[in-house]
From TrEMBL:
InterPro entries according to UniProt: Ribosomal_bS20 (IPR002583), Ribosomal_bS20_sf (IPR036510)
GO BP terms, alphabetized: translation
GO molecular-function term, one example from the UniProt record: structural constituent of ribosome
Protein name: Small ribosomal subunit protein bS20
GO cellular component, one term: cytosol
HAMAP family according to UniProt: Ribosomal_bS20
Functional summary from the UniProt entry: Binds directly to 16S ribosomal RNA.
Lineage: superkingdom: Bacteria
Swiss-Prot/TrEMBL keywords: Ribonucleoprotein, Ribosomal protein, RNA-binding, rRNA-binding
Family to which this protein belongs: Belongs to the bacterial ribosomal protein bS20 family.
Length: 96
């Protein structure tokens, strides 16, 4: 533990920030997982669209707060849409 008062405060602040960041990342991952599960379960298009919209919103908000890098946010959104389009393509091929 540091001896200087301001450094002690910095340590406390960084621990609080770390906990907040971990919680935000966890929430983001949860919304991504929910979107992927909605896609996999063959839910209605409205449900999938809503899940994707919520996932996008949380990813963007996490990046906006600086918890993840904006390129990481773009990559996560891109992978999610790629997964969705792959699923749509599989359904179209199986239907024809």
């Amino acid at each position: 533990m540091p001896n200087i008062k301001s450094v002690k405060k910095d340590v406390i602040k960084s621990r609080k920030n770390h906990l907040r960041n971990v919680a935000a990342k966890s929430a983001m991952k949860t919304f991504i997982k929910k979107a992927r599960l909605a896609i996999d379960s063959g839910a209605a298009e409205e449900e999938i669209a809503k899940a994707l919209q919520l996932a996008y919103k949380v990813i963007d908000k996490t990046a906006e707060r600086g918890i993840i890098h904006r390129n990481q946010a773009a990559r996560r959104k891109s992978r999610l849409m790629k997964y969705y389009h792959k699923h749509v393509q599989q359904i179209a091929q199986s239907a024809s």
